[in-house]
């Protein structure tokens, strides 16, 4: 018998002073049985960074044809494709062909090894950006995970703060590859 996804609920308040975006989002997050709390919280972080009216969670880990997050325009064209983890180069190049922008949020201690293998293979992808969440910060973010969460995300001058109650985590993303 297949295991079912675990449903998480998050009330996410976003204050993104860099983009001038201020909003509350009620998120329902399906955590695949093979997904860790750490990976799920990186998906929530990516949602907060790119929050927009049409941004939504994709099937990601359970479907090779969908990303972890995506934003489509009114014609159903994919404007933004977001991957979490260390996807292979074929998946990313295919995503680059289907979307205006592709952004990867890698995390975990193996990110450096993964990127050394992928860097030259992905050099030609001009609409690809790769960011790394340092492992100590992604592990601290994981500790905020609960089945029902009240989260606050503040973004200012490129610094990101995610908090839940008295716990707060500062995220300093490392740019591995920028667009162009």
From TrEMBL:
Task: Read off the Pfam families from this record.
Answer: YaeQ
Per the UniProt record, the source organism is Undibacterium aquatile
Can you tell which superkingdom this protein's organism belongs to?
Bacteria
Cite the InterPro entries for this sequence.
Answer: Restrct_endonuc-II-like, YaeQ, YaeQ_sf
Identification of the protein by name? YaeQ family protein
Q: Which SMART domains match?
A: YaeQ
Instruction: Give the Gene3D superfamilies listed for this entry.
Output: Restriction endonuclease-like alpha-beta roll domain
């Amino acid at each position: 018998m297949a295991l079912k996804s675990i449903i998480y609920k998050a009330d996410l308040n976003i204050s993104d002073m860099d983009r001038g975006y201020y909003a509350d989002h009620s998120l329902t997050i399906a955590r695949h049985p093979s997904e860790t709390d750490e990976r799920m919280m990186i998906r929530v972080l990516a949602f907060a960074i790119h929050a927009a009216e049409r941004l939504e969670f994709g099937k990601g880990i359970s479907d090779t044809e969908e990303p972890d997050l995506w934003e489509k325009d009114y014609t159903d064209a994919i404007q933004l494709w977001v991957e979490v983890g260390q996807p292979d180069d074929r998946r990313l190049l295919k995503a680059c062909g289907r979307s205006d922008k592709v952004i990867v949020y890698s995390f975990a201690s193996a990110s450096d090894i993964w990127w050394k293998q992928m860097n030259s293979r992905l050099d030609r992808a001009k609409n690809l950006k790769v960011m790394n969440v340092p492992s100590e910060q992604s592990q601290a973010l994981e500790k905020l995970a609960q089945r029902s969460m009240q989260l606050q995300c503040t973004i200012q001058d490129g610094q990101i703060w995610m908090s839940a109650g008295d716990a707060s985590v500062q995220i300093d993303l490392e740019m591995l590859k920028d667009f162009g």
